[in-house]
Amino acid sequence: QELSQLVFVLAVLIPSGALAQNNCQECAKMGSEATKFYNEFNNVREIIENFQNNTCPEMEKEGVKDCKVFIKDSYPFVSFALFNDKDGWFKADTWCDPFNCERNVKPADDTNVNCFDCL
Fold first, then answer.
1. pTM of the full predicted structure?
2. Are 60 and 67 contacting, i.e. CB atoms less than 8 angstroms apart?
3. Which residues fall within 8 angstroms of residue 23, CB to CB, at 6 or more apart?
4. In angstroms, what CA-CA distances link 42 with 70, 107, 110?
5. Rounded to whole angstroms, how far apart are CA atoms 85 and 68?
């Protein structure tokens, strides 16, 4: 269930964050800050613990061995691959699609982002 909630947040709520910005540079800043937020150590640790406590017991019932170790060792890499502003979810040319941004647009330095906007 937690995984389906995460997918809901990613698929529905996150793209609305890009629309809260006014141009490519501001939107790229949101992507940059979201990258930091979703890969911050404590946030990654909490997601790992959530998977270990809620998903792994169900997986182990199905015969999957070492789920907790696998999640602990692999999720940080998965998180960074998915949630980054260079090649992942938050790259400007896809994340900021409403603005038709170039892939390598420079994030605005003068834009403040509250990462509750990233949720």
1. 0.70
2. yes
3. 99, 108
4. 18, 25, 26
5. 28
